[in-house]
Amino acid sequence: MSCKGLSLMSGGLDSQLAIRVLQRAGAEVEAVSFVTPFFDNTKAKAAAEALGVKLHVVDFTADEIALIKNPPHGFGGAMNPCIDCHATMIRRAGELMRELGYDFVATGEVRGQRPMSQNAQALVTVEKTSGLVGRLVRPLSAKLLEPTIPEIEGKLDREKLLDISGRARDRQIALAAEFGIVDYPSPAGGCKLTEEAFGRKLKDLMTHEGLDDRTLVELLLVGRRFRLPDGSGVILGRDGRENALLNRTVAVLSDRHRPAILLMPPTGTPGPTALIPDLKSEADKALAEGIVKAWCRGTGDADRAPFKGFQIL
Ligand code: SF4
To answer: Is the beta carbon of 16 within 6 A of some atom in ligand 1?
Structure first.
């Protein structure tokens, strides 16, 4: 008997090992990764290609924004709703699993690797909240967990699954060598939501313009940001590429009937373009013009000092 599974793929070592262990246990495996403006799937794509498995890509933006607005389990150190984000990704993978007619979803989670999110109780909670009881396989720790349906049915050889637990990485490193996996990124990093500075910008957008306009959410990755006294937000390009992007974007925002405006540096002076997606007053506009001039070539700290209090760092 054989079975088919869908394995969550971050591109990190554990998600790669999970796939190889499942294949050794008799499963046919495909991978799934998630994308939002806050993280991409570049590493996942490279890993899936190296492993030779098909990668399904799910746009997770609407889910992530809903969780940022209302995270049932709160945030981590920044604006990262990790517990709910992880459980929702597994739930979405479960929906895809049913749609494709596969037998299970898998993850590279290791029991006890993260004290809060991967302890024994947390693994059970995620399985329940994702609606995948009996269909969520953690091949790296499977022998320490209750057998899943594909194991009970004999479609997945439990003897070939593993019993790794804890924070040490030596078994994973040894397994990587055994499977010939040489290219894997460090476990942490890659999600902007975990960065405090990004979190401040996100919170500012959520408070003022809101998170319903995807273009504005994507613009969080661009430019220096200011919030002016009457409530206008200013995005100031940091280089030619960002200035060009702001130039293109103003038309998109104007189409949505925002009073969006673009400010350019004085003629003949190299400097930044500023986009104000929703201008609130003439006083704010005058301040934004001052900001553009203060960041033009040839200016210094003294020119910028009057505006520093408006900058979101
Ligand atoms: S780090 Fe980012 S992508 Fe990962 S679970 Fe947390 S919020 Fe989600």
So the answer is: no
Tell me: do 20 and 144 sit in the same domain: yes
Q: Read off the amino acid at residue 74.
A: G
85 lines ligand 1 (CB under 6 A): yes
Ligand 1 within 6 A of 310 CB? Answer: no
Q: Is the CB of 285 under 6 A from ligand 1?
A: no
Which ligand 1 atom sits closest to the C-alpha of 86?
5
The Cα 97–Cα 297 span in angstroms is 54
What mean pLDDT do residues 87-94 have?
95
How buried is residue 97: exposed, middle or buried, by Cβ count under 10 Å (0-12/13-18/19+)? buried
Tokens, residue 225: 């940001």
Are 144 and 89 members of one domain? yes
Question: pTM of the full predicted structure?
Answer: 0.91
Q: Which residue puts its alpha carbon closest to atom 2 of ligand 1? A: 191
Compute the distance from residue 38 Cα to the ligand 1 centre, in Å.
9
Number of domains in the chain: 2
Which pLDDT band, with edges at 50, 70 and 90, does 177 fall under?
Answer: very high
**Residues 157 and 33 placed together within one structural domain of the fold:** yes
Residue 289 CA to ligand 1 center (angstroms) comes to: 37
Q: Is the CB of 191 under 6 A from ligand 1?
A: yes
For the segment 117-172, what is each residue's pLDDT rounded down to a tens digit?
677 788 888 888 888 999 999 999 999 999 999 999 999 999 999 999 999 999 99
Q: Does any domain span residue 186?
A: no
184 in a structural domain: no
Residue 74 sits in which domain range? 3-179
**Ligand 1 contact via 246 beta carbon (within 6 Å):** no
The reply to whether 247 falls in a domain is yes
**Confidence label for 278 from pLDDT (cuts 50, 70 and 90):** very high
What pLDDT is stored for residue 244 in this prediction?
Answer: 96
Q: Answer yes or no: is 281 within a domain.
A: yes
Q: Does 25 have pLDDT greater than 80?
A: yes
What are all long-range contacts of 305-310, with beta carbons under 8 Å and residues at least 24 apart? 307/226, 310/226, 310/227, 310/228, 310/229, 310/234
